[in-house]
Specification:
With about 250 residues, the protein is an alpha/beta fold. It has a single domain, classed as TIM Barrel (Alpha-Beta Barrel), CATH 3.20.20. The chain is built from 11 helices and 8 strands. It has helices at about 15-25, 30, 40-50, 75-80, 95-100, 105-115, 130, 135-150, 175-195, 215, 235-245; strands at about 5-10, 35-40, 55-60, 85-90, 120-125, 160-165, 200-205, 225. It has an 8-stranded parallel barrel, surrounded by 4 helices. α8 (about 135-150) runs parallel beside α9. It is globular and about 45 Å long. The chain binds phosphoenolpyruvate (PEP). Phosphoenolpyruvate binds near residues 205 and 208.
Length: about 250
């Protein structure tokens, strides 16, 4: 399986940027083994449907845990699915922090995605205080196991985990490849011991750019990257994808 690059635009971007990224990166997936997924604000996901001759794949940035109802402002998994969206970020640290998403809510959203055949990208990661207190692995393992304890075993292989240390997101201070490797290895080990034979793919996220991507990808348990800021410039993002795909 080739590497996975997931771009998280957060609440950024424009129709023009979408066109530019599709043009720059769209055909890259045809010539490399990398899968490139764009996690876009919901309105752009509807537009993305129009790009039917691209290898790019699409992700929601969030989803409601219920199927439908009086939840103004929310987006359901069924709506994402109807738009041809195959992936969804779940439990991004910004949602945990600003929208009070708990581990249990992250589990509920993960299950909603799995029911609809949407592949959840479950984000986990410690904050600076937790890392300084030596609790990084404990926090990540709690976040991960809440999910793995509550999903149907048969669907667990659809989950991708993104290790995103909160202190590295948007700060320009990425985790070292060795730090990422240590956590990724622990995540995979915990997943295997929880569900026999489960081989989760684990992405690293936090200030990844075209200059540091290659060193991170050299680590044996880094299966791809989740990219915020560096995905908002089409040419730079292409360079990053090329580094990850090993095509340069
Ligand atoms: C993110 O939004 O998940 C992220 C990793 O952001 P950045 O690359 O900007 O640190």
């Amino acid at each position: 399986m080739g590497p996975l690059v997931v771009a998280n635009w957060k609440m950024n971007g424009s129709e023009q940027l979408l066109q530019a990224v599709v043009q720059e990166v769209g055909e890259l997936a045809e010539t490399t083994s990398a899968t490139v997924v764009l996690a876009l604000p919901a309105p752009y996901l509807a537009l993305a449907r129009g790009f039917d001759n691209t290898q790019l794949e699409w992700a929601g940035q969030n989803v409601h845990w219920l199927k439908s109802g009086a939840y103004t402002g929310e987006v359901s998994a069924e709506m994402l699915s109807e738009m041809g969206v195959g992936w969804c970020l779940v439990g991004h640290s910004e949602r945990r922090q600003y929208c009070s998403e708990t581990d249990e809510l992250v589990l509920a959203k993960t299950n909603t995605c799995l029911e609809l055949g949407i592949r959840p990208i479950v984000c986990v990661g410690e904050n600076l205080r937790e890392r300084q207190a030596g609790k990084a692995l404990e926090v990540v393992s709690r976040q991960l196991l809440t999910v793995l304890n509550g999903v149907p075993t048969a669907l667990a292989p659809l989950i991708v985990v993104a290790y995103e240390p909160v202190w590295a997101i948007g700060t320009g201070e990425e985790a070292s490849p060795e730090t990422a490797q240590e956590v990724h290895e622990a995540v995979k080990r915990a997943a295997r011991s929880k569900i026999d034979g489960l081989e989760l793919r684990v992405l690293y996220g936090g200030s990844v750019n075209a200059d540091n991507a290659k060193a991170l990808m050299r680590m044996p348990d880094v299966d791809g990257v989740l990219v915020g800021g560096a995905s908002l410039q089409a040419h730079g993002f292409r360079r990053l994808c090329e580094q990850v795909a090993g095509s340069v």
